[in-house]
Amino acid sequence: MKLTLNIWRQQGPNDTGQIVSYPAKDLSPDMSILEMLDKLNEELIAAGEEPVVFDHDCREGICGSCSMVINGVPHGPQKASTTCQTFLRSFQDGENIYLEPFRATAFPVVRDLMVDRSAFDRIIQAGGYVSANTGGAADGNALPIAQQTAEDAMDAAACIGCGACVAACKNASAMLFTAAKVSHLATLPQGQVERSERARNMVAQMDEEMFGSCTNQGACSAVCPKEISLDWIAKLNREHIRSRVAVST
Amino acid sequence: MSTATSGSSRPTTFVLGGLSSISAKLLMALTGTGLLIFVAAHMLGNLQIYLGQDKLNAYAKFLKGMPLLLWSARAGLIATFGLHLGLAVYLRRQNRRARPQGYVVDDPVETSLASRTMLTSGLVIFAFLVYHLLHFTLGVTNPATHSLTDAAGRHDVYSMVVLSFRNIYVSGAYIIAMLFLGLHLSHATSSIFQTFGLTGNASRGWYQKLGWAVAAILMIGNISIPVAVLTGMLGLPEGVAQP
Ligand code: HEM
Ligand code: FES
């Protein structure tokens, strides 16, 4: 199949950048977007041009590296999917495809389609861990956790930190990410000791990184490759209220 | 673990005096809820116009008869409105700063028109409110209809409303403003529950439906009055002439 690729090219953080169009032919519908870019890059290198820089790692939908906005939607049109798991069969032969980097002040463009998502790491560093001593594996098993509670915590923990929620949100808000990370620990007994402090510090870091605020529009959850629910944002709001009124953490 | 040593928030550069984005949103929802309750009560009061001149004018006199309560309510409303508007602008500015550069191709997945136009619909409501106060409360725009009294010597609110709404431009302005109010509330009402953390996966859809119902009731209830005047369903009482 044939496609016209309109790709955001930007030399570095301070370059203004622009869309550059590349005709791509001899593509297979079974190629992923990343494989298509690999092919384009081989051709660009052969022609002595700079290859398109993009983030990728596992290529099996679990690491969350492959950030880009495809035709205005983070990770493209396929629901619950990452870019590496988005295949050309999702597009029409001859279609125009736009590839752009995630856009957020907190995610500055490094080059082309690659952005710096270390703001997420700093949110985690602000409290997304358990530092209370919870013992060894045997002690963990001695702590009974209801099946539903374990399932819920796992649903929140499924977040791979890809940043699609921020990229899709009109306000570049990181509420869905922060909500998932605060909630999966707040749901489990091990997370209780630092519960209030965690919510307070992670929300403060989220604000400091210049993410926007939530206006309850739901684009984040709709594009999330792991289908993290808006419930967790409601939960984060509750955790936030709780952290403000709790007498001791 | 004590709050004194480790519980304090990190320094923030992005937020107004340490007010977190979620706290700002909670205040937005709290003030919005206050305004919503006011708008509902206001509509119920006004619908008494269908009970006739005597009932409506008596209701107006009853409200004016409690100046302390009336003025505290007015002061509270102004403060609530000011806070709601101020926070809306403040949050919007932060959200703009969070994404200074948009996408070349942008697909607004999932989001509703109402949710994307909250500030616009809100500002239209604000402009309308200023006009509404100048019109009915202060009597600046249509002074002739504002100074009528009824047979019992009360301020003739009923005739003022009917005479005002016979003007298609005045009615039109009210109807259009109420369409924007409906738009605002169709997102705002369900938003309240999400912001306060009261929603769950199973209930979110119901809250959205509740929000649409509340928005529709408030919009249609208010719009019905100018429509009833224009169609002649609500007429002038005996003895009041068209000036
Ligand atoms: C000065 C006029 C107004 C402006 C500029 C304004 C603006 C806004 C904005 C920007 C939001 C946040 C939207 C979001 O989270 O997506 C909002 C929320 C809301 N507004 Fe207004 N608004 C105005 C008047 C009103 C009025 C008159 C009412 C009630 C009848 C109202 C009720 C609400 C409610 C209930 C919310 C939901 C809060 C939440 O997010 O949970 N607003 N408004
Ligand atoms: S490359 Fe790992 S999720 Fe796409």
Short description:
With 249 residues, chain A is an alpha+beta fold. Chain A is built from 9 helices and 7 strands; from the N terminus they run ββαβββββαααααααα.
Describe this structure in words.
The complex is a heterodimer of chains A (249) and B (243). Chain A has 249 residues and is α+β, with helices and mostly antiparallel strands. Chain A has helices at residues 33-46, 118-125, 137-142, 147-157, 164-168, 175-186, 195-208, 219-223, 231-245, and strands spanning 3-9, 18-24, 69-70, 73-74, 96-100, 109-111, 114-115. Chain A folds into two domains: 3-111, Ubiquitin-like (UB roll) (Roll), CATH 3.10.20.30; 117-130 and 145-248, Alpha-helical ferredoxin (Fumarate Reductase Iron-sulfur Protein, Chain B, domain 2). In chain A, the strands form two sheets. A five-stranded mixed sheet of chain A has the order 2-1-5-3-4. A two-stranded antiparallel ribbon of chain A has the order 6-7. Chain B has ten helices and no strands. Chain B is 70% helix and 0% strand. In chain B, helix 2 (21-46) packs across helix 4 (67-98), helix 8 packs across helix 10 (201-230) and helix 9 packs antiparallel against helix 10 (201-230). Chain B has one domain (15-97, 115-230): 3 helical TM bundles of succinate and fumarate reductases (Up-down Bundle). The interface between A and B is large, with 59 and 53 residues. The structure holds protoporphyrin IX containing FE and FE2/S2 (inorganic) cluster.
Task: List the topology elements.
The complex is a heterodimer of chains A (249) and B (243).
Chain A: E1 3-9, E2 18-24, H1 33-46, E3 69-70, E4 73-74, E5 96-100, E6 109-111, E7 114-115, H2 118-125, H3 137-142, H4 147-157, H5 164-168, H6 175-186, H7 195-208, H8 219-223, H9 231-245
Chain B: H1 3-6, H2 21-46, H3 53-64, H4 67-98, H5 113-116, H6 118-137, H7 143-146, H8 157-165, H9 168-195, H10 201-230
Helix pairs in contact in B: 2-4, 2-9, 6-9, 8-10, 9-10
The complex binds protoporphyrin IX containing FE (HEM) and FE2/S2 (inorganic) cluster.
